[in-house]
Amino acid sequence: MNFEVTPGMRRLGSTVLGMEAIVAALVTPVAIRVSGVQPWLAVTVGIGLAVLCVVAAGLLKRPYGYVVGSVVHVLAICTGFVVPTMFFLGTIFAALWITAILVARRVEGATSR
User: Fold this and answer.
1) CA-to-CA distance for 10 and 49, rounded, in angstroms?
2) What pLDDT sits at residue 93?
3) 9 near 101, Cβ under 8 Å?
4) Cα–Cα dist 102/11, whole Å
5) Interval 96-102 mean pLDDT
6) How far does Cα 35 stand from its chain's mean position?
7) Number of neighbouring beta carbons within 10 Å of residue 74
8) Band of residue 107 on the pLDDT scale cut at 50, 70, 90
9) Residue 36 — left, alpha, or beta (φ > 0 → left; ψ -120 to 50 → alpha)?
10) How many CB atoms sit inside 10 A of residue 70's CB?
11) How many angstroms separate the CA atoms of 8 and 10, rounded?
C-alpha cells in the first residue's frame, strides 16, 4: 500500500491536531474543577495530550506522522476516562482527522489529473 503525503493532507491534518491541542490543554482546568481529578493527573493527561498533538503535527511530513496522529486520537478518546466529555470530543476530532486525510487525498488526486 502506497501512502503518499500531500501538502493538503499536511495542512488539514495539522489544523485538526492544532485545534485538538487547544481542546486538550483546556481539559486540564475542567478536569480539576468539574470532574474533581487530582491536579497532577489532570496536568499530565491534558498538557501531555496537547504536547503530543503538537509533536504529531510536526511529524506530518512523513507517513509515520499519520500513524502518530492516529494514536493521538485514540488517546484523546481514552481521555474520556478522566473527563467524560472527551469521549465525545475525541470521537469528533477522530472523525475530522479521517475526513481531512480522505478529502485532501481526493481533492489533490482530482487536481493532479
Assistant:
1) 19
2) 96
3) yes
4) 13
5) 92
6) 22
7) 10
8) confident
9) left
10) 15
11) 5
- For residues 67 and 80, the answer to whether their CB atoms sit within 8 Å is no
- Distance, CA of 63 to CA of 22 (rounded, Å): 24
Phi, psi (deg, nearest 5) at residue 22: -65, -45
pLDDT band at 105 (very low <50, low <70, confident <90, very high): confident
Contact 79, 45 (CB under 8 A): yes
Grid coordinates in use for 109?
A: 488526486
Alpha carbons 65 and 41: distance in angstroms, whole number: 27
Spatial distance between the Cα atoms of 28 and 44, rounded to a whole number of angstroms:
9
Cell of 1: 500500500
Q: Is 5 left (phi over 0), alpha (psi -120 to 50) or beta?
A: beta
Is the full-model pTM beyond 0.85? Answer: yes
Contacts of residue 56, defined as CB under 8 A and 6 or more positions apart, other chains included, come to 17, 65, 68, 69, 71, 72
C-alpha cell at 66: 499519520
